[in-house]
Specification:
The chain is an alpha/beta fold. Helices cover 42% and strands 18% of the residues. It has helices at 10-21, 37-43, 52-58, 71-77, 79-82, 95-108, 112-119, 134-140, 157-170, 199-206; strands at residues 2-6, 25-29, 48-50, 61-64, 86-89, 124-127, 149-154, 173-178. Helix 1 links the parallel strand 1 (2-6) and strand 2. Helix 1 (10-21) packs parallel to helix 2 (37-43). 46% of the residues are buried.
Length: 211
């Protein structure tokens, strides 16, 4: 599968590299793609680099891993480019960085999913890879024991299935939670956030049926 990674930092760079090593075609994106030489080399496989617009066009699926406060402008600006592609979104509202926006989202009780629906209307967006630190993910990828659980939420059932397969390919255990509004159950500050829990532990924490 062709995957465009928009935002090639700690999470985007790591997950994109895991996908590249699993056999997917990955294009890492940056406003300055020449800065991604080392990442592309380390990712191996068929990894390449480009601009965000090039990565969006390249990917059958996109991983969107940019600062949360950029989403209200980035999403509408790239709406037509995303079209009906599946977009896995990883960001978290952070008070120290995102200020009033984070206060609004965290205080609303609606959760991040409701805002993603507003900022990426019509896009097949999946909330994913937001609950676990990059170092924990790097250490736990393809662990021999129970795999780290990655909660997923989307209004599009097919998108959830595609995202679930990509979570497996990266070496983790997909936990399908439900519709996008249910992303609030695994947002920052919830009991399953930043725990490194296994998939079954996440399912238990969220009251879901075990696999």
């Amino acid at each position: 599968m062709k995957i465009g990674v928009i935002g090639s930092g700690k999470i985007g760079g790591l997950i994109g590299a895991l996908w590249s090593r699993a056999g997917h075609e990955v294009m890492f994106a940056s406003r300055h793609p020449e800065s991604l030489t080392d990442l592309v080399k380390a990712a191996g496989g068929g990894a390449t680099s480009g601009t965000p617009d090039q990565a969006i066009a390249f990917g059958d699926v996109n991983l969107l891993s940019i600062p949360f406060n950029e989403l209200p402008t980035f999403g509408p600006a790239k709406h037509d480019a995303f079209g009906r592609k599946v977009v896995l979104e990883t960001g978290n509202p952070t008070l120290s960085r995102d200020g009033a926006l984070a206060e609004e989202v965290l205080g609303s009780g609606k959760g991040t999913g409701a805002y993603l629906r507003e900022w990426l209307p019509g896009v097949r967006v999946v909330r994913a890879f937001n609950t676990v630190w990059d170092k924990t993910l790097a250490e736990g990828a393809r662990h021999a024991g129970p795999r780290i659980g990655i909660p997923l939420a989307s209004d599009d059932e097919e998108a959830l299935q595609i995202a679930s397969g990509l979570v497996v390919d990266a070496g983790f255990d997909p936990v399908i939670v439900g519709e996008l509004d249910r992303a609030r159950e695994f947002d920052r500050g919830t009991p399953v956030y930043d725990t490194g829990m296994s998939g079954d532990e996440v399912r238990k924490g969220l009251g879901l049926n075990p696999n």
